[in-house]
Amino acid sequence: MDESVRPEPLVIIDKELYGVPGAVQITLNRADAFNALSESLIDALQNSLDEVAESDARVVVLAGAGRAFCAGHDLKEMRATPSFEYYQALFARCSQMMLTIQRMPQPVIARVHGVATAAGCQLVAMCDLAVAASTARFAVSGVNLGLFCSTPSVPLSRNLSRKAAFEMLVTGDYIDAQTACERGLVNRVATPERLDDAIRALVASISEKPRAAIAAGKRLFYRQLEADIDTAYQLAGDTMARNMLDDAALEGIEAFIQKRTPRWRES
Fold it and tell me: Which pLDDT score, from 0 to 100, does residue 3 have?
C-alpha cells in the first residue's frame, strides 16, 4: 500500500491520554506491519519528535499501535533498492531520528508491548526511560539474517553491560521483559493490564518537576557520559552553578528551608 494515501496517519500525537498536564504520547501507527520503520514512518516520527520538542510538553511517551512496539526496519522496502548509497542515506536518516530522542529537552519513555526487535529494540535503548509489559520481548535479531545490528549496537552497548549487549547482538536471541529490566534495558515491568498505570505514575512524577531543571539535567546527563571524568565533573559543576541561579531552584530551596511545598512559577 502506498503510505502517502493511507487513511490514517503514520504517527499519532495524543496530549490527553494520561490525564497529566504536559504529557504527550507519540504512537507509531503502522500496526499492520508491526510498526516496522519504513522510510515514511521514519520521516513522520522525525517530524513528530521535532514538533513535540519545540512544544511545552514536559514528558513524552513513545508507543506502538497494534500487537507490537516496533519490529525494526522494513526489510521488504529496503530490499527493493539494493545500493550502498541508498542504505547509507537510510541509516543516516534513521540515526538522526534516534539522536533526536536523546537531544530533545523532554524525557522520553518507551511504552513497550509485544516485540521490540532490531531497530525497534534500538528505539527502546535510545529512549531515556522504558516501561515494558511483562509479556514484551526484545531482540537484535539481524544476525539471524546475516545482518549484524550495527546501528542498534550503539545505544544497546550504552544501556547494557558489554558482554550482555554483545551476547544479544551475536546470538539474535530474544530476552523477556524481566531479563531486560535486570540488564538495564528497561526501568520497570508491569502486567499488560497495568502497563498504562505504571507509565502514568512515572509520567506524573516527572511532570511535577521544573521543566528547566529536567531539560538541563537531561542535556548534561548525556554529555558527561561521553566525556572523560575530569571534563564530566567540569560540565556537571557548570550545569549545577547555572541551575542554582534558576528561579525554580531558588524557589525549591526556599521551600525546603521553610518546610513547605514549592510553588513553581512556570506554566
Answer: 65
Catalogue the E-assigned strands of the chain: 11-14, 23-28, 59-64, 108-112, 115-117, 129-133, 137-139, 175-176, 188-190
Q: How confident is the model at residue 1 (pLDDT cuts 50, 70, 90)?
A: low
3-state secondary structure of 14: strand
Q: How are beta strands 108-112 and 129-133 bridged, if at all?
A: parallel
Three cell numbers written together for 79: 530490499
Domains of the chain: 3-207 (3.90.226.10), 211-258 (1.10.12.10)
CA–CA gap between residue 209 and residue 202 (Å, rounded): 12
d(CA 194, CA 200): 10
Q: Report the predicted TM-score, pTM, of the whole model to 2 decimal places.
A: 0.94
* Cell numbers at 64, concatenated: 506502538
Q: Name the DSSP letter for residue 143.
A: G
Q: What does the DSSP assignment read for 64-85?
A: E-TT-SB--B-HHHHHTS--HH
Rounded CA gap, 10 and 209, in Å? 31
Between CA 144 and CA 192 the distance in angstroms is 28
CA 171 to chain centre: 24
Place of cell 499519532: 12
Cell digits of residue 75: 526489510
- Which three cell numbers, joined as nine digits, stand for 32? 499492520
Residue type, 11: V
